[in-house]
């Protein structure tokens, strides 16, 4: 059986991006690999083995074009109201917290936030469905 281990996104500024993911999701740099032309930074925490790989191409200075195929990365958190407030206080401009229903049943409580490179990040409150 296969196991998901990481997802990779390309970023312009490793320090700015790692600070965002540390501030919002408590992701720390687990390891970095430096190559001629690019660097890889693997972020994670004790909540999951899954890692977010940030790739920095040395010759890239302009923002990446994300296209219309990318959707978002999703993370779960215990108390999204306090996380939303923290993100706003840090100046990251999270969008409003929303509740998503199927008929009268709450499916998810969530908000979106955009990282420094324009990637959409969904923060979902932990529940039986999202843990």
CATH architecture: Roll
**What number is the mean pLDDT?**
96
Strand order of the biggest β-sheet: 1-4-3-2
Low-pLDDT parts are: none
Largest sheet: 4 strands, mixed
CATH C-level: Alpha Beta
Number of helices: 2
Q: What class, by secondary structure content?
A: alpha/beta
Question: Could you give the count of β-strands?
Answer: 8
Query: Can you tell me the CATH topology?
Result: 2,3-Dihydroxybiphenyl 1,2-Dioxygenase, domain 1
Radius of gyration: 16 Å
Share of helix, binned: 10-25%
N-C termini distance: 21 Å
Characterization of the model:
The chain is an alpha/beta fold and 131 residues long. The chain has one domain (6-58, 72-125): 2,3-Dihydroxybiphenyl 1,2-Dioxygenase, domain 1 (Roll), CATH 3.10.180. The protein is 17% helix and 44% strand. It has two helices and eight strands. It has helices at 14-25, 80-89; strands at residues 6-10, 28-35, 38-45, 48-57, 73-77, 98-102, 105-114, 120-125. The strands form two sheets. A four-stranded mixed sheet has the order 1-4-3-2, with helices on one face. Strands 5-8-7-6 form a four-stranded mixed sheet, with helices on one face. A hairpin with a 2-residue loop joins strand 6 and strand 7. The chain is globular. It holds the Pfam family Glyoxalase. This is Aldoketomutase. Residues 3-126 form the VOC domain.
How is the secondary structure organized here?
Elements: E1 6-10, H1 14-25, E2 28-35, E3 38-45, E4 48-57, E5 73-77, H2 80-89, E6 98-102, E7 105-114, E8 120-125
Parallel strand pairs: 1-4, 5-8
Antiparallel strand pairs: 2-3, 3-4, 6-7, 7-8
Organism: Pseudoalteromonas phenolica
Keywords: Lyase
GO molecular function: lactoylglutathione lyase activity
